[in-house]
Amino acid sequence: MSYSVGQVAGFARVTVRTLHHYDEIGLLAPSERSHAGHRRYSDGDLDRLQQILFYRELGFPLDQVATLLDDPDADPRAHLRRQHELLSARIAKLQQMAAAVETAMEARRMGINLTPEEKFEVFGDFDPDEHAEEVERRWGDTEAYAESQRRTAAYTKEDWKRLTEELDAIHARMGDLLAAGEPADSAAAMDVAEEHRRFISSSYYDCAHELHSCLGDMYVSDARFTATYEAIRPGLAVYMRDAIHANGARAGARGE
User: Fold this and answer.
1) 46/15 Cα distance (integer angstroms)
2) I want to staple 45 with a disulfide (CB 3.0 to 4.6 A). Which of 19, 41, 96, 251 is the partner?
3) Rounded to the nearest 10 degrees, what angle do helices 157-179 and 116-123 cross at?
4) C-alpha angle 65/71/76, rounded to 5°?
5) CA dihedral in degrees (227, 230, 232, 238; nearest 10)?
6) Is the pTM above the cut of 0.70?
């Protein structure tokens, strides 16, 4: 089985000109020629091209790649092991760089005077701006979002720690009610739901019952929110939503 230069270029996602250049410098000479003199590449040629492209991706110059591949004492498996080690090291480095960039982006987006280390020490996996962002995405440029931005811009590290602890306590109480088998529309669960609504109103933006119900729906429909609540206690996302809806209905019945 042999392949034309155009086919190989398509397989490897390189240009025909690149393959011609590799042939001209002796780095990758095709094993066969057609009757018309056209280059034809074997499976072995494709294996060599793969090695070339691996080394090139790692930054090796072409002359050094040729030296490595043409070493008569080199085991092809040794090349693969070496490339795997180099690629793994590069992946780890890139992952570290990506994490650093994400940290910087998050710290800038938060608009608060924390170092990245402090920011993630305070919040862990919880993003206190998640609610306001979702409000803006789903309902446009709302006053709720603007109010949240105004308030949180002045928050200090101590403020964020306090808010995170308060919200964790609310979630824990709701999780305990779920574990105890308390119905989501019970007075106890609705009271915690109301506490949750008032926490949002006092900390971020005025959260009316209608908006609170929309947030409750997101806790189930949005995988990010669901994962947060399921990590606290399995089933908590649905339980939170149902308790929030029940609390809204209770408030409506009271004319609140």
Assistant:
1) 14
2) 41
3) 20
4) 85
5) 120
6) no
